[in-house]
Amino acid sequence: VIPAAALGVIGGVEGALARHADGVIARLRPAERDIARRLLCQLVTTDGVRLRRTGAELQARGDDRAAVTAVLDALVRGRLLSAHEGDGTDTAYEVAHEALVRGWATLATWLDADHDRRAARQRVEIAAREWERLGRARDALWSRRQLQELSAVGVDEAELPERGGAFL
Questions:
Q1: Disulfide: which of 17, 57, 84, 108 matches 53 by Cβ 3.0-4.6 Å?
Q2: What average pLDDT score do residues 133-158 get?
């Protein structure tokens, strides 16, 4: 039991969660922190809504799979992510609590800095799903202008999951 006054001093539940989250990230090696940043940003929409994604969806084409798995495991152990086992399918992950999205300044900074790239990646994901639905039809591929817009915000196919990379 935490008295209301003590909770107020530590910044409420959101303040306590934010400090805990910063500690989890600080315990990662620098390369793992970069991976954690990317993974956490992929689990929040540009509108600030938590997403649930499978390990395969979080895995970029250029990733070291073992490193990504190790970071996902560390974030789950640190209770920043929840892991959901599917019915024989890939594990799905999501940010463990809405308060982390709303009240963790570090994540808010990352999300803000990466907003345009995340929006572009979301557009690629939607277009790639549609392209696959249409049997990978050539006329569903993006035009040169759309590809240039993607390049302008710094998104490249190596950072996308398999489907998005194949689409590009």
A1: 57
A2: 90
